[in-house]
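[scheduler] slot 2 assigned
[scheduler] job type: sequence-to-structure, two independent chains
[scheduler] chain ordering preserved from manifest
[runner] begin chain α
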Amino acid sequence: MSHPLYIAFIWHQHQPLYKSPGSGVSLSPSQQYRLPWVRLHGTKDYLDLVLLLEQYPKLHQTVNLVPSLILQLEDYIAGTAFDPYLTASLTPDEQLTYQQREFIIQHFFDANHHTLIDPHPRYAQLYQQRQEKGQAWCLANWELSDYGDLLAWHNLAWIDPLFWDDPEIAAWLKQGRNFTLGDRQRIYSKQREILSRIIPQHRKMQDAGQLEVTITPYTHPILPLLADTNSGRVAVPNMTLPKQRFQWAEDIPRHLRKAWDIYQDRFGQIPRGLWPSEQSVSPAILPDIINQGFKWICSDETVLGSTLKHLFHRDGAGNVQQPELLYRPYRLQTAEGDLSIVFRDHRLSDLIGFTYSAMPAKQAAADLVGHLQAIAKMQRDSQSEQPWLVTIALDGENCWEFYPQDGKPFLEALYQSLSDEPHLKLVTVSEFLEEFPATATIPGGQLHSGSWVDGSFTTWIGDPAKNRAWDYLTEARIMLASHPEATEENNPEAWEALYAAEGSDWFWWFGAGHSSNQDAIFDRLFREHLFGIYKALNEPVPPYLKQPVENHQAQGNHTPQGFIHPVIDGRGDEQDWDKAGRIEIGGARGTMHNSSVIQRLWYGVDHLNFYLRLDFKSGAAPGQDLPTELNLLWFYPEKAMVNSPVPLADVPDAAPLNYLFHHLLEVNLLTQSIQFREAGDNHQWHPRFSRAQVALNSCLELAVPWADLQVPPDSPLRLILVLADEGRFSNYLPENTLIPIEVP
C-alpha cells in the first residue's frame, strides 16, 4: 500500500510574562506590563495565521498556545493591561512629558523597518529623520503632530495586512498623517477587537477538525532543569553549574496541571499534545506528563540523534539521509505508561523561520514543496509499509516580521501548492497518531536530556550570569518551602511569582548567546518576580535582588546569535546585522591596532549565503588610505581536497597566512568587481563562476552563496581576509586567527 507523505506543521505561539507583579498578581483594576509584545504580536501574528489556513480546508495543522500568552491576551481584551507604549499612545500630545518623548523617539521604531516601517511613507519619513539626524535633533525639532503620527503608526504598522480591508483601518492607512488622540483611541479599540477573536477562532477550527491546539507548561519553564539543574551535564559533561543545585521536581506537575485547567476551560475539551518549553525533554519529566494525561510531545531531531546515538547527515540538497529514522513517531516506554513523541526536521523548520523571508514568496514556497516532494519520493523508493510523518515545528510569530506583508504571500503560495499536490497530506499530530500509532519504541530512560538548541540546555544554564540567576531562584524557592503554611490556596501571590520566575525567557536573555535592547527590562522583570515571592511571604528581600543580574552595557566581540538576511547595499543597516558575529579590529593590539582603517568586521549566515561586512573609519577611500584589493580565502579543516597558498607577493610565512586554501574571492574595492577562483594542482588557481554580491558605500557588504563553495550542510569552514595592492600583500584580518563559520 502506498501512502502519501504526511506532514505535521506545529506553530508555537509564545510570549514571556511581561506583567510586573508590582501591579498585583490577581486581577486588579489595572495591570502594569513592562513591554507591549503580547498586544502587538496579537494584532499581527496569531489570528491571521489560522484565518489564512481556514481558506484551505484540506490542510490540517497544529498550533501551540502558551498559557502565559493566553492570560495576557485576556488582560488586554478586558482593557486592564497597560504597557508604557500603550500609555504613551493614549496620552494627549500636549501632555507628553519630556521622558515620554525620549522614550517614544527611542522605542517607537522597534520593528523591522524593511517590512513594517518602510512600506508606510509617513512612518518611514520619521524613521529616516531619527536615523540621519539623531534622537537629540528630533527632541529639539519635532512638533506635536510628529509625535502624534509616530504614536499612531507604531500601532497601525503592527496590524496584520489581512485586516487592512477593514474600512476604519483602510481609512487610517490612507490618511497617513495628522492623527488625533481620538484616532489612536480607535486604533487601540481595533487592537482589542482583533485580540478578542484569537481564542474563539482557534476553538472553532479545532471543533471543525482542521486544527489541533496544544499547550505548554504554565509559564514556559525548562522542565528538565526544574527537575534537576545537573541535567545540563548530560549534553555538556564539563558544564559549569550554579553554586546550588536546583531540584524541585514537585513544581513540574503544578505547571502541567495549571496549563491543563486553562486549556480545558478555554477550549471545552482536554488537551492531547504538550509542547515542552523549548522542546526540552529528559527522562525525569516523562512520568508527570503521562500522569497528567497528555498523549504526545514533540522535540527536535538533535534530541532524537543523541537518543539513538545517530548523527543525521544531509545530502547536497539538504535532505536527510536515513529519513526513516526521523520521519516517524516513537513511543516512549515508562513504568507510568507510554507517551508518543515526534521529532521535528530542524532544517525545514529553520528554512521557514530564518531563510525564506529573504526569497520571493513563490520561489520560497516552491523550494519547501520541492523538499517535501523529494522526501515523498524517498518514501516511495523505500517501499515502507509504515507511512512517514514529517514534522515542521517552529516559532509561529517572530519570523513573520521579516517577511513582506507578514508572510501572507508566502503562506498563500505554500498552502495553494500543498492543496494541489496529491502526494502530500497535512495532518494534525493527533490525527496521524490515531490512524498510525507509533510502533518504534524508545525506553524512557534512554531519552536524551536536551532542547532544540544543539540538543543541550546551554542557552539557559552554564554561563556565569545564567548560573547566578539560578542561584537567586534557588534561594527564593528554599524560602517558599520554609513556609509550609503558604499554600497555593491561601497565598497565591507567592506561588504565581515563583511560576513566573521559573519561566525560561529570563535565562535565555542572560549572559552570552542572546541580547536585545530590552535585556535590562528582562533582568528587572525576573528580579521583580523573585521580589514578589519574598514580599508575599513577608520576608526581607535579599539586597542582591536590587542590583541587575549582569551588566547590560554594549558588548564587544561576539559570535553570531542567529541567521541574518542583510540587503547588500553597502549601508550596513543596523537591523540587518543585529544577530551577526562581530570582531572589533580598530581597537585590537598588534599589527592593526588603532591606526586601522577597518574598524569592525561583521559576519553571519543563512541557508543561502555567507555574509560579511567591514566598517571603515569615516572618510576612508580605496586607493588612498584603504588598499584596493580584498581577498577572502576559505580554509576547510580536516577535509581532503586540493589546496594552494595565497597567490600574492610578499605574504609573511606565518600562521595562518601560510595555510593552504581552497577557494579565493578577490574583490576590487575601486570597481566593486569580483574574481572567484578554486585551488588546483601544482599550486594553481582556476577561475570559477560566482554569484557573489558586493556593495561599497558607507561600509563594504558581501554575500557569497554556499552554492559557489559547494559545501554540504553542517560543514565547518574557516575564513581569512587579506588586503593587497596590485597583487602585493598589505595586511590581513582578523589577527592571528581564522573566522569560524558553520554551514547551516
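[runner] end chain α
[runner] begin chain β
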Amino acid sequence: MASQEDLFASVDALLQEEPQLPPLAERARLREAAGITQARLATALKTTTQSVKNWENGRSEPRPPRLEAYQRLLNGWAAKYPAHSAPEVAPAPAQSRPAPIPETSTGPAASETSKAGPAPGPARAAAPERPATSRPPAAKKIAKPTLDSRFPHGPLAVLDGDGSAYGVDGIVLDCPARSVPELVEWTLRESGLGAAKLNRYGKDSDPLIVLTAAAAVKLGLPERLEGHEQRRSLRLPTDHPVVKQVVKAKWQLTQRGFGPWARIYRKAQGRERQCVQLAILSWDALDERSWPGVSDMEPADIARVLGVFATRVITPRGSTAVSGLELMTALRPPTKAVQDRESGNWVSGHNPGSLGTEPMDPAPPEATPEHPVVVNSGWTGGFLNEEAYQWVRPVDLLSDEECTLPFAVGLDLNTAFLAAAARLVVGLSAPDHFHTPKFNPKIPGSWLVDLSHIDLDPRLPSPFTPDGSRPTGPAWYQTHTVAYAQELGYNVAPIEAYLRRETGAYLDPWHDRLKTAYLDTLADLGVTKDLDDHQFLAAMARHKQADPAMAAVLAAIKATVKGGVGKLRERPQGKHYKEGETWPALKRPTWRPDIRAAVISKARVNMHRKLTNMAKMTGLFPLAVLSDCVVYPSPGESPLDCLPYAASGKPQPGGFRLGPTPGLAKLEGVQSMLWAVDLMEQGLNPARHIKGGDAVLDEGE
C-alpha cells in the first residue's frame, strides 16, 4: 500500500506538469494534511476537491486531462484511507457549485455552505459580466454569523429576468420557475432560503424573494402598478391571471392581496410553515426614504443590502415600519408551549412579558378620536398628546449677544426613540380607571394632571407640550412626563388616571437588537465608539460615501426604529373610512398607543433635560427643536465650539455629547445665524431646514 509520502510525491510531480493549476496553494494544503489525523485528512481532501471545482468553474476552456488524473488520485486516496472517526462525506450534487467570494463579500460563502451540508438547490458562480457599479470595494470584511443548516443560502434572494436568484455572500441560484406558483414551490422545496427564529418560542422567518422588473414581467406580472391612488396602496385585481394561478394551485394570499409586498401561503402542517414573501421592486416595495438608492442597484448589491439587514435586524416583511413591528413580536412571541396539569399534554399558553394574542382596547384618553372606544362611549374628556417637539423660540427672546454669533449649528440625537426604549417599563394588561390617585412614577399609564402652575425659562420649550407652550389647565400626560415635573421639584396631584397593573420592559430585546445592528453598521462605515470627537465628526462627514450599500442599511435601521414606534398607533387609511368603525390595525395585539406615548414622552423629557443642562453649563439656549434635532447659536461652525467640555478636554456629562451610540449627538448641519433668524421671523423652524432641504418630522408615524 502506498505511503502518504509516496502519494504526495506523485501529486507534486503532477502539479509541476500542470502549470494552469495553483500548485503552491494545493501542495501546501496537502502537505499540511499529511501530518494530521485521518479524520482531518478527510476534511482536507474534501476542501481540496472543492477548491479544484471552484478553479474549474472560473475557466472557459475544457477540463485538462491532467486534472482528471489529479481528481482520481485524490478520490483514490480517500477510498484507501477512510477516516476512523469522521462520518462519510457525501459528494455534493453535480450542479451545486458554491460561488466565489466577490470583492465586497461579507464572508466565505463557500465554506459556510459546506458546513451546512449539500446545497438543497442548484447554485452557480456569480456572473462576472455584471458590473457592481453601485458598490465600491469595502474597506474590511463584515463579520457574519454562521448560516443555519436548514437555510444554507441565507434569508432571501433577488430574482432577475434570466432566472438568476442572487443571494447573500455572492451566491447565485438557478431558478427555473416561469409562474408565481412555480416560484413559491421552488422557494420552499429547493432554494434553501429562510432564517431561524429570533426567540426560542418564536417562528422561523419565511423566505423572501425580491423580484426585479424583468422577473416580474417574466412571471406574468405588470411592470408597474398604476392607478389614481398611491401606488403602494394598489393591488392586483382578484381576476388577474396571476391571482387566478395562485388560487388554482391551492395557495392563498393575505387580506392585503397581491401588492408590492405579497405573502403567499398554505395553512401550516404541524410545525412546517408554508409561506413565501414576495417584494416587487418596480412596484415601489423599497421606499426611497427608507432604502435610499437600493432599487437602482444591481441584483447582487440589493441582495447584499437586504441580506445584511435580515441578518442584523429581521427579514423584511413589508415597509421598514412593518418590519419594526414584526421584530417586536419575533423577539417577544405571544405564546409558548406549556404543559397541561390535568392531561400532561403540551399546549399553547401565554408567554409572560409579551402582549399576548388578543388585541386590547386602550383607555379613552389614549385612543384616537375616531376609535370605537371613543365614539361609542361619547368620550369628551380629552386625549393624550405625547408627541415629538416642534418648537421655535420667539424672536423677541433672542439676546443681542446671540444675534451677533456667526453660526447656527444643528445637533441630531442618534435614534432618540431607540434610546428612550431602553429599560422602558410599559403596561402589559388592560387599563384600570382610578380617581384622585397618588402619583407613582413606577406605574405606566395616563394621568389627568394640572401642570399649568409650573413656570420655566421661556427660552426653553416646555417639557409638557409638543409645541413647547406652557400648559393652560388640566391635561392627560404619560407617566414619564408627570415624573419629570416631579423631578423638577413641583407638586403633582392627579385628578384621575388609567393605569396598568401588569408591567414589563417589553421593548428591551427590540432595543438591544436594533442598537447592536445600528452600531455594527456604523462601524462598517468607519464610525466606531473609540473615536475622539474630532475623529467622530470627520468619520460621520464621509460615512455615506464609504459604502453606499451599508449606508442604505443604516438608513433602513433608523427607519425601522421610528416606523415601528409609529405602527403602535396606526391610524385608519382610505377616504371611505367612517368614525367609529374598526380598521385592520386594531386587530393586532401590537396596536398599543400607550406604548408609543411612553417612548415619545421619555424621548421628549430626555431632550428637555439635556437642553436644561446645556443652558446651565454653557449659557446657550436653543433656537429651535424638531423632534431629535436642536439648533444652537454658536461662535464657530463646529459642534466643538458650543458643546461643554471639562478642563481636561473630556465632554461634560448631562448635556449633548458627540458619539455613535443611540442618545448621543452628531452634526446635523451648519448655517449662518442670519439665515436662522430670517426663518424664525417667517415662522419657520430652522431645525427642519438646517441640513438642507426639508427634514422629515421624526414623530413615530
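[runner] end chain β
[qc] chain β: The radius of gyration is 30 Å.
[scheduler] slot 2 released
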